[in-house]
Amino acid sequence: MTFIFLYRTGKLLLTDEQKMESRQVWDTWNAFLKETYGIRTAVGKVVTSTGVVDYRGDLKGASIVEAGSLAEAVEIAKKSPTVKYGGAVEVLEEFQG
Questions:
Q1: Which secondary-structure segment (H or E) carries 67?
Q2: 3-state secondary structure of 50
Q3: Residue 68 DSSP label
Q4: C-alpha–C-alpha distance, residues 86 and 1, integer Å
Q5: Residue 36 carries which DSSP code?
Q6: Cα dihedral sign for 6, 16, 37, 76?
Q7: In the list 14, 15, 76, 94, which could disulfide-bond 2, CB 3.0-4.6 Å?
């Protein structure tokens, strides 16, 4: 089964040392997922029928993850660096229509 993990930042402010550690932890995480291309976000826009505004949210990236079930995907997500650093991971199953 295929899932998308959406990574949302938390309220923790990281020290410079923690930021360096975080980069290494993310490299390890990407290797664990066997991910060759993780999606990291920076700046963007929100487009609606009424206009376009700057994105100011907490979504900082996404991964495509293979797991046997939603429960297994959740267990994988619990190991994410985002959780370690005070954020959250949304685990969404791909629609099989």
A1: none
A2: coil
A3: S
A4: 27
A5: S
A6: negative
A7: 94
Looking up tokens 């954020």 gives: 87
CB of 61 within 8 A of CB of 39?
yes
Question: How far is CA 66 from each of CA 14, 19, 25, 30, 34, rounded to the nearest angstrom?
Answer: 30, 28, 20, 13, 10
Backbone angles phi, psi at 44, to 5 degrees: -170, -170
Which ranges of 1-97 does DSSP label H, i.e. alpha helix? 16-32, 70-77, 81-84
Strand partners, 74: none
Token pair in block for residue 21: 């550690």
Let me know if 37 is exposed, middle or buried by CB neighbors in 10 A (0-12, 13-18, 19+): exposed
Per-residue DSSP letter, 34: T
Answer yes or no: pTM beyond 0.85: no
